[in-house]
């Protein structure tokens, strides 16, 4: 089995934070989103004899490529890289990894995480699509199911509210050669949805040919598509991980301050005369003074003074002095009020 991770998107909805760092490599609670995703599958490595992790990327540069290989090697697997030069949709991206589309595979899109205590792959089921019920199904690829959980229809961003079961971006295929054939059919016949070749179109074609798909719901789905979603997902991860371990680094310096948990505070970060939390992640070597911060993400080597912020993201090597309520600053920024 292989794990295939498409991550060729440009992350435009999360700018300016993705100008220097690809979205899957943005740290959340001290760890890149991509590393969290891969670790969520780590217990399947021995059970299903996973052989490699496949990354489908755009032009990210050699430095980022080496980082991807290192993340893969950290759990004892080789990394393989394919390239999607133009953003032509999820089906086109997957077809760039055509040489790896054989045998059983897991496809996991890089801007999604999930939490499910009983998450597993049933070897008796040929194809699994993991889903979550949502309030705004018109924004997602969705599925309709019969009472047994067998999928009866795939749709990409339907205009009518025919189902609220959203596809979260995690898939299992026992025979990925069948998927490869349908992906190729879309491109050969120029079948697009909103000017792109969509994976849901290939899945619907396979279903019509009698190939069965089962829907499995997850308990929690964490999406990282934009700033609002990434801050919400940060809060969920803090809630989960604070129950298992202490998230304030032993080398963090807390002076005359209140930390309202759950919060993550990185190594050699100094908090002085401040109230932090709840639901705040702060990277390493950051200095915060005379500030109130809640529901926010602050990265490494950043300085914040006289801030009163919530629902904010502040990048690396940034200096912020001010009193606004909501901030969205990328790396290497300076903002004084």
Task: Explain this structure.
There is one protein chain. The chain is 21% helix and 31% strand. By secondary structure, it is of the alpha/beta class. The chain folds into two domains: 2-225, Spore Coat Polysaccharide Biosynthesis Protein SpsA, Chain A (Alpha-Beta Complex); 238-336, UDP N-Acetylglucosamine Acyltransferase, domain 1. The strands form six sheets. Strands 1, 4, 5, 6, 8, 9, 10, 11 and 12 form a nine-stranded mixed sheet that branches. β2 and β3 form a beta hairpin. The mean pLDDT is 87.
Q: What is the 3D shape?
A: elongated
CATH architecture of the largest domain: Alpha-Beta Complex
How would you classify the helix and strand content by structural class? alpha/beta
Supply the CATH superfamily name of the largest domain: Spore Coat Polysaccharide Biosynthesis Protein SpsA, Chain A
Helix amount: 10-25%
Total separate domains: 2
CATH C-level class of the largest domain is Alpha Beta
User: Terminal Cα separation, in Å?
Assistant: 54 Å
Report the radius of gyration as a whole number of Å.
21 Å
| β-strand amount | 25-35%
CATH topology descriptor of the largest domain = Spore Coat Polysaccharide Biosynthesis Protein SpsA, Chain A
Number of strands: 28
Largest sheet: 9 strands, mixed
Runs in which pLDDT lies below 50 for 5 or more consecutive residues are: none
- Assembly state (oligomeric): single chain
Q: Can you count the helices?
A: 7
Give the overall average pLDDT: 87
Search tags:
about 325 residues, 7 helices, six-stranded parallel β-sheet, single chain, UDP N-Acetylglucosamine Acyltransferase, domain 1, elongated, Spore Coat Polysaccharide Biosynthesis Protein SpsA, Chain A, nine-stranded mixed β-sheet, 28 strands, alpha/beta
């Amino acid at each position: 089995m292989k794990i295939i991770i498409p991550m060729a998107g440009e992350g435009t909805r999360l700018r300016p934070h993705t100008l220097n760092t690809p979205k899957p490599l943005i740290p959340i609670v001290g760890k890149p989103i991509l590393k969290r995703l891969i670790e969520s599958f780590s217990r399947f490595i021995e059970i299903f004899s996973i052989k490699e992790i496949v990354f489908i990327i755009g032009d990210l540069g050699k430095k980022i490529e080496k980082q991807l290989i290192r993340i893969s090697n950290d759990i004892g697997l080789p990394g393989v890289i394919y390239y999607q030069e133009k953003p032509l949709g999820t089906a086109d991206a997957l077809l760039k990894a055509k040489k790896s589309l054989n045998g059983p595979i897991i496809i996991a899109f890089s801007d999604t995480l999930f939490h499910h205590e009983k998450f597993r792959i049933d070897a008796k089921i040929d194809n699994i699509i993991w889903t979550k019920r949502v309030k705004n199904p018109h924004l997602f690829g969705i599925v309709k199911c019969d009472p047994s959980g067998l999928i009866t229809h795939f749709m990409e961003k339907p205009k009518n509210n025919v189902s609220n079961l959203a596809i979260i971006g995690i898939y299992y295929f026992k025979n990925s050669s069948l998927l490869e054939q349908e992906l190729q059919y879309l491109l050969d016949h120029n079948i697009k949805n909103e000017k792109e070749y969509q994976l849901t179109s290939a899945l619907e074609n396979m279903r019509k040919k009698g190939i069965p798909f089962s829907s499995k719901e997850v308990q929690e789905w964490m999406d990282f598509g934009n700033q609002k979603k990434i801050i919400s997902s940060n809060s969920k991860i803090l809630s989960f991980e604070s129950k298992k371990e202490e998230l304030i680094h032993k080398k963090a310096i807390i002076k005359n301050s209140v930390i309202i948990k759950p919060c993550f505070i990185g190594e050699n970060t100094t908090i002085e005369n401040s109230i932090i939390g709840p639901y705040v992640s702060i990277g390493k070597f950051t200095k915060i003074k005379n500030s109130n911060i809640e529901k926010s993400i602050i990265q490494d080597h950043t300085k914040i003074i006289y801030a009163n912020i919530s629902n904010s993201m502040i990048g690396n090597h940034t200096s912020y002095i001010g009193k606004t309520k909501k901030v969205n600053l990328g790396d290497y920024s300076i903002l004084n009020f």
